[in-house]
């Protein structure tokens, strides 16, 4: 390579061609979560940039660092747009050497954003769901939904997957896409109530604009794992009252921002340091037990850690370097 500082640019098609498996992504996320539990990370809660754009949306900016990646660790920043008319996960990530500040890579992070959400859902299920869970119910059909369902199907020997969303055409399309990928029977449900009734793993990933109790407390039977992470609350206020363990990805992150499935629960004190069981990193690192009985009702709320974006981006960069994929760009 000629003199100067060079970085690797990886487009969406470049990343797709690397052929990362779902299991590789889940394992990379679990490693990052373990590092978080062990205190070998640095990150700040996301911040929002809201330009004067007529109210069509905002940008999320996420920043994180993992000590255990590369020779000196890796730092990263991701900017993801949440604007009407564009995919909600459209994003770009940058990776840096934390000892020199030299940029290492610029990546299309659209897949990373969707996949890391599904991977975090799956890491939570690895530790908090019953191993013999048979029915998965999923509300929401946006980009992250595909990764949630397919990764959970990889984890469990499911008998049935139920999917629902607000629009009939979106849930039918989502079910058809899943049926092409998975052998587990897919059932399309007209309502969230129908989907969640009697399910073992309940995932709420809707995009409400106003709070609405789609996931009702009565639907949470003994032995279930409930994972609500929609932007606006779709759960009843007394949901936490029936839970044996309430787990978050990061307590500081859970308290930040205006959005989140359990925003009201934090604001009203129902979710507090006293009612919180653990952060998922503490469980993955072996500092707290995960599920301890088949009868437990557990809840996992994840808002999205920048550490996961850095972990998957580094996995992609490592694979790309080995394959000499992407485009090398002169930086300085």
Automatic annotation (TrEMBL):
The lineage of its organism: Bacteria, Bacillati, Actinomycetota, Actinomycetes, Propionibacteriales. This is Ornithine cyclodeaminase. GO terms for cellular component: cytoplasm. Coiled coil: none annotated. It comes from the Bacteria. It comes from Kribbella jejuensis.
């Amino acid at each position: 390579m000629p003199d100067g500082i060079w970085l690797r640019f990886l487009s969406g098609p470049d990343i797709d061609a690397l052929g990362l498996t779902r299991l590789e992504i889940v394992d990379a996320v679990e490693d990052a979560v373990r590092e978080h539990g062990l205190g070998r990370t640095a990150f700040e809660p996301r911040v929002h940039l809201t330009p004067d754009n007529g109210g069509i949306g905002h940008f999320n900016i996420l920043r994180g660092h993992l000590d255990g990646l590369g020779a000196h660790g890796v730092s990263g920043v991701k900017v993801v747009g949440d604007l009407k008319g564009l995919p909600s996960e459209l994003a770009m990530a940058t990776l840096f050497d934390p000892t020199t500040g030299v940029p290492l890579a610029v990546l299309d992070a659209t897949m990373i954003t969707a996949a890391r959400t599904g991977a975090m859902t799956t890491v939570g299920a690895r530790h908090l769901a019953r191993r013999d869970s048979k029915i998965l119910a999923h509300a929401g059909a946006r980009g992250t939904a595909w990764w949630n369902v397919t990764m959970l199907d990889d984890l469990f020997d499911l008998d049935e997957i139920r999917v629902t969303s607000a629009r009939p055409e979106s849930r039918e399309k989502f079910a058809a896409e899943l049926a092409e990928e998975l052998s587990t029977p897919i059932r399309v449900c007209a309502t969230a109530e129908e989907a969640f009734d009697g399910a073992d793993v309940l995932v709420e990933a809707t995009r409400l604009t106003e709070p609405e109790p789609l996931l009702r407390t009565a639907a949470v039977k003994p032995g279930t794992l409930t994972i609500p992470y929609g932007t606006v609350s779709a759960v009843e206020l007394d949901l936490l009252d029936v839970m044996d363990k309430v787990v978050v990805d990061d307590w500081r992150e859970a308290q930040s921002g205006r959005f989140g499935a359990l925003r009201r629960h934090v604001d009203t004190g129902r979710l507090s340091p006293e009612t919180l069981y653990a952060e998922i990193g503490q469980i993955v690192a072996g500092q707290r037990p995960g599920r301890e009985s088949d009868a437990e009702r557990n809840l996992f709320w994840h808002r999205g850690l920048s550490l996961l974006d850095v972990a998957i981006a580094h996995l992609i960069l490592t694979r790309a370097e080995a394959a000499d994929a992407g485009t090398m760009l002169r930086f300085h």
